[in-house]
Design brief:
The structure holds two protein chains of two kinds. Chain A is mostly helical. Chain A is built from seven helices and no strands. The chains are: A mainly alpha, B mainly alpha.
C-alpha cells in the first residue's frame, strides 16, 4: 500500500512541476485537474485499513470540487476572456523550474528537521505538501495573467489540503467541509473579479493593474 | 441567543436581496443594526450561554470586539441613509445584502471558540467585503479589489496552514482545536510545531490586520472603497483580525511562550510605524492618509500587546478608541468627497469656511487620530508608552515616540492645509476653479452629521473617564492574555 501512496505523491509533485513549466492556460488547468483527482485518492490509500464514513465523504467532495467543478469553471473563464497563453511572466520559465527544484530539496530538508508527533504512513507526505505550497507561491508571484495566478492559488491550496489529510481523523467533519466550501467560493469570487478585470481593461494582464501606488 | 445574533443579519440580508424598494431596504438595514446592538448591549448584563456544542461562546475579549463592531456598524448604517441620497442611480441591493452578511460573519469571528470556525469567519468576511470595496466599479476600484482578494486570500491560506500546524502540535494529547481545550492542555503541546504555527498565523492574520510588510492591500482598498465601507474595514475588519491574533496569543501565553510571541509582535509593530510614517509624509490622497494611519495604529496595538502588563490593557483600550476614531475619520472623508468630488488633498481647501461642520469634524478627526489629549487615544497610547518605559524597552520607547511625533507632524501638515488655507488652489482637472464649490449652499444632511458627532463624543468621554463596567471588562480581557493594570 505504501508503495502506491509514495508513487502517487511523487506523481503529484511532478504534475506540480508540469504546471509551473507550462505557459498555456488550458494545459495548466488540465494538469491541475489531474493533480486534484490524484490528491483526492490519497486519503483512500492512507486510511485503507480503518476507513470511516466521513473520510470517504471529504475525499469525494474534494475530488468533485477541485478535480471537476473548479477546472470546468476555470475553462469557462478562459473561454470568456479569450486568453490562451501566458506571454511574458515576471520570472522566466527556466528560473521558475530551477526555483521549484530548489523548493523540493528544501522541503525535504525542512521536513526531516520537523518531527511529526505521531507515526504517519508515508515520509513523502509532508515534503510534497510543502513543495506544492512553494510552487503555488512561485506561480502567484511569477505570472502576470490573472488566471494563472488563480491556478497558483489553487496549487497552494492543494498543498495545504495534502497536509490536512494527515489530520483528517482528528478534526471534526464540520470544519473540514467548511474550509473546502470556503475555498470553492473563494475561487468563484476570484473568477468573477477576473471577468470584471477583462471587461474593464480588455485583457486579464495584472501588470495593467498598476495605477494605485505611492 | 448567540445563534440568533449570528443568523439574524443573514436572514435580513437575504430579505434585502428580494425587497423591491430602496426605502424599505434602508429601513431593514437600520432595523438589523439596531437589533444587533440591542442584543450586544444585553450581553453586558447577562452572559449568554455557550451554544452549538461549544463552537460558539462569548468571553471578555470577544465581547469587547463585538461591542465595538456593533456600535460602529449602527453609526455607519445611520450614515448610509444620508450617503445614499443623491446616488439613487446605482442599485444598492447587492451592497446592503453583503453589508449585512459582513456583519454576520464578523459576529461569527468574535463568537467562535474553535480555531477552524474562526478561520472560516475571517475568510467569509474577506469574501463579503469584495462587493463592498468594488461598489463603484471603476478601473481603480477593480484593481484595489484584485489586490485585496489575492493578498488576503494568500494570507488566509497561510493562516490555515498555521491552524493545521497547531492541530499537529497537539495531535497526541489535545486532539482538538477548541480554544478552551487548547488553553487547558497548552503545556503539553509540541513546541516546534507550536512555534511554526504561531509564525504562520501571525503572518496570515497579520496580513488581514494590515501589519507592515503585509499591509500593501490596505491603502488601496481603503482609498477605493466608499467611505462608510472604509470606516467598517478600518474599525471592524482589522479588529477581527487582531482578535484572531490575540487568540493565538492566549494559547502562547498558556504554553509559556509569551516571550517568543511578543518579540515578533513588537518587531512587526515598529516596522508598521516606520512604514506608515514614510507613506504619510506628503501623501496626496486624504483617504490613503487615513489608511496609512490605520497601519500606524495597528502597529501601536501590536506593540502594546507585545509589551505585556499594562501595555495589554492599553492596547485593548486603544483598539476601542482607534475603531471609533477611524469611524470619525473615514465618515468625514465621505462628507468631503461628497462636497469636493476629489480625493486629492491639494484640491480640498478652506473646509472650515465653506463647510463649517465638516471642517470642525475634520479637525476633530485629525486630533483624535494623532492622539491629542482630550481624546481617548491619548490615554491609551500613553499607557503603552508607560508599559515600554516600565519594562525597560528603551529602543521601543525611542522608536515609538519618534515615529508618533513625526506622523503627527505629517498629518498636521496635510490636514491643516485642507481646513484652513484660503489660498485659491491650482485649477482642478477639468480646468474649473475648485473654489467654485464655495458658492454653493452648504449641504450637510443630518444623518451624515449625527453619527460622526456621536462617535466624537464617545472618544472624548473615553479620554476623560473610563466607566467602571468597561474597566472591569478590560481588566478581564487583559487578564486572559496575562496583562492588566
Amino acid at each position: 500500500m505504501n508503495v502506491w501512496l509514495d508513487a502517487i505523491l511523487i506523481l503529484v509533485v511532478i504534475l506540480g512541476l508540469f504546471i509551473v513549466a507550462s505557459t498555456r492556460l488550458g494545459t495548466m488547468i488540465k494538469i491541475f485537474s489531474w493533480q486534484s483527482l490524484l490528491l483526492g485518492c490519497v486519503p483512500f490509500l492512507m486510511y485503507a485499513q480503518n476507513m470511516e464514513f466521513y473520510i470517504i465523504i471529504v475525499s469525494l467532495v474534494a475530488i468533485v470540487l477541485r478535480g471537476l467543478i473548479m477546472p470546468y469553471f476555470l475553462f469557462w473563464a478562459i473561454r470568456h476572456v479569450s486568453i490562451r497563453t501566458e506571454i511574458r511572466p515576471f520570472i522566466g520559465l527556466g528560473a521558475t523550474l530551477l526555483l521549484s527544484g530548489l523548493s523540493i530539496v528544501s522541503s525535504f530538508l525542512l521536513a526531516s528537521k520537523l518531527v511529526f508527533p505521531i507515526s504517519i504512513s508515508s515520509d513523502m507526505l509532508i515534503p510534497s505538501s510543502f513543495s506544492l505550497i512553494i510552487m503555488g507561491f512561485l506561480l502567484l508571484v511569477g505570472r502576470t495573467k490573472a488566471i494563472s495566478q488563480v491556478v497558483g492559488y489553487l496549487v497552494l491550496e492543494n498543498g495545504i489540503f495534502l497536509f490536512a489529510i494527515l489530520l483528517l481523523r482528528k478534526m471534526p467533519l464540520l470544519v473540514e467541509m467548511g474550509i473546502l466550501l470556503d475555498l470553492f467560493i473563494a475561487a468563484v469570487v476570484m473568477g468573477i473579479v477576473v471577468n470584471h478585470i477583462s471587461a474593464e481593461f480588455n485583457n486579464t494582464d495584472t501588470t495593467a493593474l498598476a495605477t494605485l501606488k505611492d | 441567543m448567540l445563534i440568533f445574533l449570528l443568523f439574524f443579519p443573514l436572514v435580513t440580508g437575504g430579505l434585502v436581496f428580494v425587497l423591491r424598494e430602496q426605502e424599505s431596504r434602508n429601513r431593514m438595514l437600520l432595523f438589523t443594526a439596531l437589533l444587533h446592538s440591542a442584543c450586544v448591549f444585553s450581553f453586558w448584563k447577562f452572559t449568554p450561554a455557550v451554544s452549538l456544542n461549544g463552537f460558539l461562546g462569548l468571553d471578555a475579549l470577544g465581547l469587547l470586539v463585538l461591542s465595538v463592531i456593533s456600535i460602529l456598524f449602527l453609526m455607519v448604517s445611520f450614515y448610509l441613509m444620508g450617503y445614499f441620497k443623491g446616488e439613487s442611480d446605482i442599485s444598492h441591493r447587492i451592497f446592503i445584502t453583503f453589508l449585512l452578511f459582513f456583519l454576520s460573519f464578523m459576529t461569527l469571528v468574535t463568537l467562535s471558540r474553535h480555531f477552524g470556525l474562526l478561520l472560516i469567519g475571517i475568510e467569509a468576511t474577506t469574501l463579503c467585503s469584495v462587493p463592498l470595496i468594488n461598489f463603484v466599479k471603476t478601473r481603480q476600484s477593480i484593481e484595489a479589489t484584485w489586490k485585496f482578494l489575492t493578498i488576503c486570500l494568500v494570507g488566509i491560506a497561510l493562516a490555515l496552514l498555521g491552524t493545521y500546524f497547531l492541530a499537529v502540535s497537539g495531535i497526541d494529547n489535545v486532539q482538538s482545536l477548541f480554544i478552551d481545550k487548547l488553553l487547558d492542555h497548552a503545556k503539553e503541546l509540541s513546541l516546534p510545531w507550536l512555534k511554526m504555527s504561531v509564525i504562520f498565523l501571525l503572518i496570515g492574520c497579520g496580513t488581514k490586520m494590515g501589519l507592515a510588510p503585509m499591509h500593501t492591500w490596505l491603502p488601496d482598498a481603503h482609498s477605493q472603497a466608499p467611505s462608510p465601507v472604509s470606516a467598517l474595514l478600518s474599525g471592524c475588519l482589522l479588529n477581527c483580525a487582531f482578535l484572531s491574533i490575540l487568540r493565538v496569543g492566549q494559547v502562547c501565553h498558556a504554553a509559556g511562550q509569551t516571550q517568543f510571541f511578543s518579540s515578533m509582535f513588537i518587531l512587526l509593530g515598529i516596522i508598521s510605524l516606520g512604514v506608515a510614517y514614510v507613506f504619510i509624509l506628503g501623501q496626496e490622497d486624504y483617504k490613503r492618509l487615513f489608511a496609512y494611519s490605520s497601519v500606524e495604529h495597528m502597529g501601536i496595538l501590536a506593540i502594546g500587546i507585545g509589551l505585556g502588563g499594562i501595555g495589554i490593557y492599553g492596547a485593548l483600550l486603544h483598539m476601542i478608541n482607534n475603531a471609533f476614531t477611524k469611524g470619525i475619520a473615514f465618515l468625514v472623508t465621505g462628507n468631503l468627497y461628497k462636497q469636493y468630488h476629489s480625493k486629492k488633498a491639494s484640491e480640498v481647501r478652506g473646509v472650515l469656511r465653506s463647510y463649517p461642520i465638516t471642517g470642525i469634524f475634520l479637525l476633530a478627526a485629525f486630533l483624535a487620530v494623532s492622539a491629542v489629549p482630550p481624546f481617548g487615544t491619548f490615554i491609551s497610547e500613553l499607557m503603552i508608552l508607560y508599559a515600554a518605559v516600565a519594562g525597560h524597552h528603551y529602543w521601543v520607547v525611542f522608536f515609538y515616540s519618534l515615529f508618533l511625533a513625526l506622523i503627527f507632524m505629517g498629518i498636521a501638515d496635510i490636514v491643516l492645509k485642507m481646513t484652513n488655507s484660503y489660498e485659491s488652489p491650482a485649477r482642478g482637472p477639468q480646468g474649473c476653479p475648485m473654489n467654485a464649490t464655495v458658492s454653493q449652499p452648504p449641504k450637510e444632511s443630518l444623518s451624515m452629521v449625527l453619527p460622526i458627532l456621536f462617535l466624537i463624543v464617545l472618544v472624548l468621554i473615553l479620554g476623560v473617564y473610563i466607566p467602571p463596567f468597561l474597566d472591569d471588562i478590560l481588566q478581564k480581557a487583559a487578564g486572559l492574555l496575562g496583562g492588566g493594570r
